[in-house]
Design goal:
Layout: H1 4-9, E1 15-18, H2 22-34, E2 40-44, E3 59-60, H3 65-74, H4 77-98, H5 100-103, E4 110-114, H6 125-136, E5 141-143, H7 148-151, E6 160-164, E7 168-169, H8 172-185, E8 189-192, E9 196-201, E10 206-212, E11 217-223, E12 225-228, E13 244-253, E14 264-267, E15 272-277, E16 280-285, H9 291-294, H10 303-317, E17 325-335, E18 342-345, E19 350-354, H11 360-381
Helix pairs in contact: 2-8, 2-11, 4-6, 4-11
The structure holds flavin-adenine dinucleotide.
Flavin-adenine dinucleotide binds at residues 18-24, 43-46, 49-53, 55-59, 61, 195-196, 229-233, 236-237, 248, 250, 284, 331-333, 354, 356, 358-362, 364.
């Protein structure tokens, strides 16, 4: 049972957001900026954000040449360009909101490595450059084979290398810590360790039900609007939505003296990625080796993929360098029947922004801005 004080001060809010990843935090910040007097509550099931946003690789990426060419097999030119522009605008918004220092943003170069059977990609670079020119105003891609040898990669991995001039990198931990601090500065109430069980809608309000282990009863929180930002875990709250989880495996090495490269690197249509961070190599990917097992929300390891990552590291990325693995982890992404994130008003009071795929770092802030605008329109229509 609740006390009089608890019921008076901790139950009713203007907006409740579920999920404190990059998207949920950004929605909360957008709402706090638009409505400084409103009470915004952000609920997170983990002790810290516990999905993809604190567990990714920190690529501020918009798509490698082979990935964009692959997308063009399933999507129209217009859709591919539109998604690219959304990533560009999302990243610009994140950088503008936070400042580069707060998110550790740097441009140390972004490259795609092409193996012998992928050299056909080079024939399409000019086409991609022309397609993307209106969005970025300069050449997106150029060949930079002269860097392969100084970077020390095995020719089995890198017969050719393409520089991407639109991408950068950031420090994921710093970004998420800064977003949490900004949210607290804006008086957003953040409660962690709370998994939302379900919600019930009324005319123009919503009841959000959470379990309270201490009071031994479900607690009903109330708000004018609810925004669901639970990405790969969305089916629990919105079972009818098409959201498929995709686990990502990652490892990081101990610091390597005189590591010969900096920047971010992709290969195999973006299924593999590695970068330099703090003098170490962070390497991830390989979901395409075992899609069935990796379609899960379990944050555990896939030994087969972890072993493969290690082989790639030793034989292709840093051959001849003694390497020690420092840490391994996995995180969960969300995919759907299209690469577009789902940003939607479900009813008068319920909204959602999820399904960020493998590029939520770039897309997330824009999706948050878009859903906050839909919420604002709804709120203003009620006045
Ligand atoms: C290994 C890996 C590498 C990646 N690398 C990159 C990269 O380099 N560049 C890039 O752009 N993107 C990358 N991504 C993708 C990117 O991290 C995601 O697209 C982005 O973080 C999604 O943000 P989000 O806020 O939508 O989701 P999340 O960060 O997953 O946030 C959802 C939150 O909701 C919480 N939650 C779920 N259910 C409930 C509930 N019922 N009640 C309360 N809370 C709940 C979860 O705990 C979680 O914190 C990577 C992802 C992974 C896993």
């Amino acid at each position: 049972m609740l006390s009089y004080w608890e019921k008076s001060y901790f139950i009713t809010y203007d907006h409740i957001i579920v999920g404190a990843g990059l998207v949920g935090l950004s929605v909360a910040i957008e709402l706090a900026d638009r409505y400084p007097s409103h009470r915004v509550l952000l609920l997170e099931r983990g002790w810290i954000p516990s999905g993809a946003s604190t567990r990714n690789a920190g690529f501020a990426c918009m798509g490698s040449a082979s990935e964009l060419l692959d997308d063009l097999q399933h999507m129209s030119e217009e859709e591919v360009v539109q998604l690219f522009e959304q990533r560009k605008n999302g990243l610009a918004l994140l950088r503008q909101r936070m400042g580069d220092n707060a998110i550790g943003y740097q441009q140390n170069g972004s490259y795609e490595l092409l193996r012998p059977h992928e050299l056909g990609v080079l024939d399409h670079l000019e086409y991609l450059n022309t397609l993307l020119l209106p969005i970025i105003g300069e050449k997106a891609f150029s060949i930079c084979n002269e860097k392969i040898q100084p970077f020390g990669f095995s020719p089995r991995l890198s017969t050719a290398m393409v520089a991407n001039h639109c991408e950068g990198e950031l420090n994921t931990g710093k970004m998420m810590q800064s977003l949490l601090r900004l949210a607290l500065d804006k008086k957003i109430e953040i409660k962690t360790g709370i998994a939302v069980e379900r919600f019930e809608e009324e005319q123009s309000s919503v009841t959000v039900i959470i379990n309270d282990e201490i009071r031994k009863e479900p607690i009903e929180l109330r708000a004018k609007t609810l925004c669901i930002c639970t990405n790969a875990f969305t089916k629990h709250l919105l079972p009818q939505e098409f959201v498929t989880p995709g686990r990502g495996q990652v490892l990081i090495t101990q610091p390597i003296p005189h590591l010969p490269f900096k920047g971010i690197f992709h290969f195999d249509k973006g299924y593999y990625y590695f970068r330099e961070i703090d003098g170490r190599i962070l390497l991830g990917g390989g979901r395409n080796r075992d899609f069935d097992t990796e379609t899960t929300t379990e944050m555990t390891f896939n030994d087969n993929i972890q072993q493969h990552l290690e082989t790639l590291l030793n034989e292709m990325i840093a051959p001849n360098i003694p390497i020690e693995i420092a840490q391994r982890w996995s995180g969960i992404m969300a995919f759907g029947n299209s690469k577009q994130p789902l940003v939607k008003q479900f009813s008068q009071s319920v909204f959602g922004a999820f399904r960020m795929g493998g590029m939520g770092v770039a897309l997330g802030s824009l999706s948050a801005q878009q859903i906050a605008t839909l919420m604002q329109q709804e709120i203003e229509s009620r006045l």
